[in-house]
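Give me structure tokens for this 304-residue protein.
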Amino acid sequence: MDEQPSTGPAGEAARPLDRRAELSEFLRSRRARLKPEDVGMPDFGRHRRVPGLRREELAQLAGVSVAYYTRLEQGHGRNVSAEVLDAIARALRLTDAEHNHLTHLAKPKQHKKRQTARPQQVRGSLRQLLDAFDGVPAYISGRRSDVLVWNRMAAAVFGDWSELPPQERNWARMAFLKPEYRELFVEWEQKAIDIVCLLRMDAGCHPDDPQLAALVGELSVKSEDFRRLWATHDVKEKNHGVKLLRHPLVGDLALQFESFRLAGDSELALVTYHAEPGSASAEALRLLASWGTDATRAGSPSPR
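Here you go.
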């Protein structure tokens, strides 16, 4: 269970995401969610032409000129300083994840040509570690929400990803394009939001990634829900929490998940799931463990 996906068909070409447009839309969306009273400013206009703060109000809060902020919001942020970005982030009340996203968009790192096409690799010792997690569903995900490697219990809970073509072993494609995953996740909308937020962060770090651009383009065409969520420009990283699942074989599961960025390659994350000891969900996991690969599909049992 260690085959690695390559997002998009072989040889597929896609135009990279427009970093300037991403920066512009992100700033506008963050400004639109604030009202003058939210930041302690008087609202003198009964009929405001724009939702949220005006550019001049935001510029005043950040301590920059209106012309300077306007250029930045139009996507011209190449020479902006870290201090100015910090001031704008404070004025917009950005979270840490949003602040980092703004920095990546405004001051992108210089990558070597075609570096984003480098295959994602997982060390053999990490694959052995996954297999050692007896009774614990676990997998390693990479860029673009690709699922790279997983253990037997992850296949029992989420489906046997080895039966999917490599390019489809991707959480975004599975969540938005496969009906069985809408049925699997009780709170599907929240799962979809989390995926889109991670893709947005990935786009900020790697706007020149053609595979990411191809994935976003495909989902935008095929899924109205993806288009709706992508347009929010929300970013966040959720490292722990509880997922409620409705498994076709064992019924409802409440699993606590933890996500760990791997030392040596921060683009890879180890994700584990476990149930509260003594709970019905823990018993259901034990049952799935006893079935092993007989419980392989998220949508229906697949006995062998």
